[in-house]
Amino acid sequence: MDLDVFVATHQGEWARLDALAGRYRLSGEEADELVTLYQRATGHLAKVQATAPDPALIGQLTGLVSRARSAVTGARTNAWQDVARYYTVSFPAALYRSRRWWVPIAVISLIGTVLIAWWVGTHPEVRNSLIAPDALREMTRPGGKYEAYYSDRPASSFAAQVWTNNAWVAVQCLLYGIALVPVIVVLWGNVFNLGLGIGLMASAGRLDIFLGLLIPHGLLELTAVFVSGGLGLRLGWTIIDPGPRTRGVALAEQGRAIIGMAIGLATVLAVSGILEAFVTPSGLPTWARISIGALAEVAFLLYALVLGRKAAAGGEVGDLAEADRADLQPVAA
Question: Which H/E stretch holds residue 31?
């Protein structure tokens, strides 16, 4: 066998096989092509070993066949690769794909917060019906409960407490989503409490102080809660409208995506808790604390809407990898 002619004849096939083996997602035609080229390459390797055992070519083909076999059989990546892929591809793609749920919820919630704050802040009779005047003065005075809340405990333990509380709110939104109404109740409670605090501090002429304490961590924290609420409502709506899939398949897919997103949201809330414990009560100027919070929020939105859009455009849906999903019978459209 003329080795040079053999290599020149099949070099194109080997290059194509190497390219296909390096891709994460393949179309049906590409997958078929991968299998065909892999089978040919194994034959080429056997032929070279039997008739022209050139060490360099055997090494090249052995490596190629090994990579192709991993692609064909679905070899698993290591745990660190899975973690990196989750935070750079799966989670941002899921955030982007669910934006039509959590962005409207964020807008509606913020409008509701402003209305409640205005109602409480401009109507003394409303404030008096909600809280006694003496208690109101104690809460809103300099060094009162609203301000002391952020600095009366060690920062590390406070961060853990904040993360636990916020994570529980997010979990409630995710778990209660299948029933729809409880998610709305949780979101309403969050909006009401926020609007109440803003309105009470505004009535005492200390709105700037309150916002200076709230914004550094609150932007990111509230966004995570809005995302959780949107995902919960999306899960509940899947029962009503599963689309072309069966209801069981639709719920399974959406449920898996939500479980995956819960990990990412817990990370976001951990960052928010760190900001609330270490930045909000710090001695930094108000503009610096607000700037840090705003930068964290902008970074998250870019992560969700820019990186997420890129990942979604590549076909990522935020579900389990195909190799980890159960095989299902086709469903008519």
Answer: helix 28-51
Report pTM. Answer: 0.66
8-state DSSP, 88: I
**Residue 301 CB contacts under 8 Å (≥ 6 apart), including other chains:** 223
**Of 196, 26, 24, 14, nearest to 118 (Cα)?**
196
pLDDT of residue 218: 87
Alpha carbon distance 184, 200 (integer Å): 24
Element (H, E) at 302: helix 286-302
> By the 8 A CB rule, do 17 and 71 touch?
no
Residue indicated by tokens 């990196």: 84
Q: Whole-angstrom Cα distance, residue 37 to residue 28?
A: 14
Residue 229 contacts residue 305 (beta carbons within 8 Å): no
Rounded distance between C-alpha atoms, residue 169 and residue 183, angstroms: 10
Quick one: pLDDT at residue 59?
A: 81
d(CA 94, CA 309): 9
| Two structure tokens written together for 131 | 């809280």
Dmax (CA) for the chain in angstroms is: 99
Q: Could you write out the DSSP letters of every residue in 184-233? A: HHHHHHHHHHHHHHHHHHHHTT-HHHHHHHHHHHHHHHHHHHHHHHHHHH
- Average of pLDDT values for 201-219? 88
Q: Comparing C-alpha atoms, which of 180, 177, 213 is closest to residue 194?
A: 213
In sequence order, which residues have a C-beta less than 8 Å from that of residue 137 and are 6 or more positions away?
A: 144, 204
- Do 275 and 158 touch, CB atoms closer than 8 A? no
Torsion of CA 159, 226, 228, 225, to 10 degrees: 20
